[in-house]
Amino acid sequence: MQQILLKIMQDFQANAPLHSGLNYDEIKSRLEPFTVDEPGGIEGVTEAIDAYLETSVHTGHPGFLRAFWGASEPASIVASLLSDVRNTTMHSFAVAPSATIIETEMIKAISNLAGFPGHGIFTTGGSNSNEMGFLCAREDALPGSSKTGINGFHLRAFASSEAHYSVDAAANMMGIGTDALIRVPCINGKMNPEALDEAILKEKQNGNLPFIVLSTAGTTVRGCFDDLEAISEIAQRHGIWHHVDAAWGGAALFSKKHIGLLKGIEKADSFAFDAHKMIGSSMVCSAFLVHDDSILPRTMAHTKQGDYLFDDPNRELSLGRISPQCGRRADALKLWLSWIELGKKGLGERVDSCIGVSEHLSNLVKKHPKLTLISYSFSNVCIRFTPSPNETIEQGNHRVRMARNYLEDHAKSMVLDSILDNQLVIRFTASHPNVNKDAVEKFLADLVDADEKISL
Ligand SMILES: Cc1ncc(COP(=O)(O)O)c(C=O)c1O
Q: Is the pTM of this model over 0.85?
């Protein structure tokens, strides 16, 4: 087992290709057999691991530019293993005493960076943290609704037109439906506060009950930050909950240089923060933070005294009382060990490096005659090819899609394309430190080259 673990740990330093280039059937046959009748022993396990490492995407590669995560911090990988070694669940203090204390301290530490008092819970990801925001907002608007349901009230939620689709998921899963989510228009990628105010008034006049506004700190495509102060003021004036989706941009809390992007976050009622994105904790490591320490116990009021899990003497310390999960991994360990390893300083430098190389790329794009910078904010750079004379939007879209596919097919880089203002753009993002200055310069050269190759 020790040898196997060493081998896995070495993988993230390996000079492995970005991906195997194999298709579904080829990967499947490389991974076979999936189940065996006779014990395969350590040899069988080793072979299976080799097959997995060979056929999975090397997300620590400098060309992995597609997602908000990539190479995770070594200490975080070890923490993940540590959590498995003492295999436990977070529902009660009795079975997870140290993990409960670590999670509680991590909640306090993240809160402290944001000017929050220190209450919250680790969740299954940013989507789930946003959903928790919706549930707390519902309980705040309709006290006791965890028991009674929403009793025919027509609840209305508000988020910008560029907010992540997990907002739709939250509206769907809490049972109000996605029609109850009003998408507020943006100006240059940021929610228009005046339009928000008008939309809330309109819904009130129509007899509906606005209960939450979700702002975004770091949008998925453009990396834009909504005006958190203006939105808090509007939410407070209308008496509705303000939740900030800082799943992506929350990493700026660690950076002295960029923390100003989150100005006003302390005025919100709750926020979502993903340490498994730019901070480099391995999947998943996400927290939901609140101001009011009574809201989570009220929202999760179904976790009754006398329940089989919570009858130990330390019931009040058991985090299962304020979580929708029963079995839950000790995910906070991943942030804990990487925070100890790198300090706030090192984690902040990780963020500064990602933002710094993205800025460098955006400057290069601006100067490049064959490329057009569509938008740049935080670590997100959106690019189109400069149109040739008489080129239609559709032809431009086709160039973007073909270039993206070319880069991926040739294992040069993996990057996302996405619709922005009705046109397809290359969305570059740097979320791990292997994406350095050389990597973005190579990406730029490869992108221009891809466009030339596909137009031949
Ligand atoms: C702005 C934003 N919020 C929430 C999420 C969802 O986060 P998770 O993947 O942790 O559920 C994402 C994912 O990229 C995101 O970009």
A: yes
